[in-house]
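Each letter names a residue; the fold follows as tokens. Both lines appear below:
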Amino acid sequence: KTLIKRPALARDPRQLQFEADINRLFLYLSYNHLGKNADEAQAEEIIEMASKASFTDQQIQVQENVHSQIKTFCKYMEEILLPNENMANDHQLASTVPRRSGLSFAVGRSDPTHNNLAAPRTRPLSQAEVSQNLKDQLGYTLNVKPSQIPHKNAGQGLFLDGTVDVGAVVAFYPGVVYSPAYYRYIPGYPKVDALNPYLITRYDGNVINAQPWGSGEVNMRRFGSFWFKSGGGSRHSGSNVPMLKTLVLVATRPLQDEELLLNYRLSNSKRRPEWYTPVDEEEDRRRWS
């Protein structure tokens, strides 16, 4: 890997690592976007583009490629969960009701017409049935079962059932998202990580707490073209509100029928758990500089 040496980045190792991560994602996701029939010449073209495109352009392309894969996933989920007559009704509504803009959705503007729409009925499928249907459509699904990592604290692991290529978005990191202004609401604040190993931080400072997410049967709610987990918790806790700031897990190599391993990139300035094995100490140091 080649990191561009610029005086500004030398003074800000964290930004340097962020740009290196975006560059790597640009390569992975662009390659995946080409599909299985991509040839060597196309792969070389992507590498050349990655060396010439600005950081901003690469970041935009990464977001677009991730969004494209998520849209495909949502389309399959609609086909699996919605009865055919509901999908037909949705298409009829789409042709008669003005479509709400992404901006109005983001800023929370209300639309009386949309507020009166009833939530669509879904097929009464079990989690196993949804999982199998998703595998039939995507070529893979995910299962939670005891980890194969040889450590007493390994706990549950996330397993891929099927096959994916490099650059595939295989999962979301679920949880409640806290922006820096709301850190004090993280359970256990200020020692938030004392009894919670499920916290993960984005580059923009948003913290995702996966501890309350739980496991087992999943209830899904639909917001536009997206499906979110719902149910459980207090009605005032905000747990039913869709959180769009999240992390996605991207395959860095072809995967088939195996346990997924996440590079948590924990800070090397603090004591790390016994089970943790760093992937790249230098990257960890830059990330938390």
